[in-house]
Amino acid sequence: MVGDPLATADCLQITRDVGFDRLLMGGKPYTTSCPLPFQADSVKTARDVTRATLHRWGVPELGDDAALVVSELVTNAVRYAMYAAGRREIQLLLMRVAPHVLLAVADPSDEVPRPKEPDFISENGRGLYIVETYSQCWGWDPLARGGKAVWALFRTEA
């Protein structure tokens, strides 16, 4: 549930004005970008990068929720985008726009992420439900080069 819709809209407008394509190139203040191969251990790498970055930014209280969400986003990218044209790597992006932190995972697939009705008995199909539950809001944006960035927004306590 969005607590401050105007601040959330401002944060998302910033990312759209700059563009995920440019943000993913890195070099912007308060952004961290990390390429990830299409491998299962990329999920652990993404969690580690997320926790370390949030700690460095002084918001370690987001670490557990953000690591869970980034795990789901990277797992989805590895699972569903691996065979997309060009087989580029996955890209993790973290961006701090106080009081928000934006996590995004870019992949080469143009397939739109679609939440499924959670089935708590099966072993998969709950990823976007988890992303929605633990983040303030989430969505996706197409990339100019093809593919998409799936993002989740968190609000810091401070």
From TrEMBL:
InterPro entries in UniProt: Anti-sigma-factor_SerPK (IPR050267), HATPase_C_sf (IPR036890), HATPase_dom (IPR003594)
Keyword Membrane: no
Lineage: superkingdom: Bacteria
Boundaries of every Histidine kinase/HSP90-like ATPase domain copy: 37-136
Listed Pfam families: HATPase_c_2 (PF13581)
GO MF annotation list: protein serine/threonine kinase activity
UniProt keyword terms in alphabetical order: Kinase, Serine/threonine-protein kinase, Transferase
Name listed for the protein in its UniProt record: Histidine kinase-like ATPase domain-containing protein
Organism: Nonomuraea jiangxiensis
